[in-house]
Amino acid sequence: METKTLEQIEKEIAETKAALENVHGSETEVYARIVGYYRSVRNWNKGKRDEFDLRKNFTLEDSHIYEVSEADTSCACASEAPAMTAKTVAADGSVASYELFVRKTCPNCPPVKAYMADVQVLGRSIDVDSEEGLAEAAKKGVFAAPTVICYDANGNETARCHNVEELQAVFEKELVTA
Fold this sequence. Notes:
The protein is of the alpha+beta class.
């Protein structure tokens, strides 16, 4: 085995560092879908390019924050959901408390927040932009903002609403039956 001096080793290290500084790869061509077809991202206009840069890629399979069961993946988002989910208002119509899941940038959240502020029911607002809020939303199967989960006095879910019209249906029924 050949023995190297400290000078030889340092010379080899310097040569390797110089070689690494001069490494130049080729430019990667990125294609993404825009308005129904795939096109090179570098050819997009500034607005679409900025929109592309803001996109976040997310898949439930790659998420290590939550344990996702098969039942959780079958839920539809609020825009595809019917006016009320399978859990409708309880027979007595009572709502004792609520949880409101919102986002800071959601355009549909302010009217729902305003409506819930006027309701005489104990409740809390949960910001799903925070890690804790997102974890709680995932645990309860909330896939869209805004979502209001209404509970009866026993803590059982009685309704799940996504807009003011659905909330009015829940709370007007409560007023009529009370």
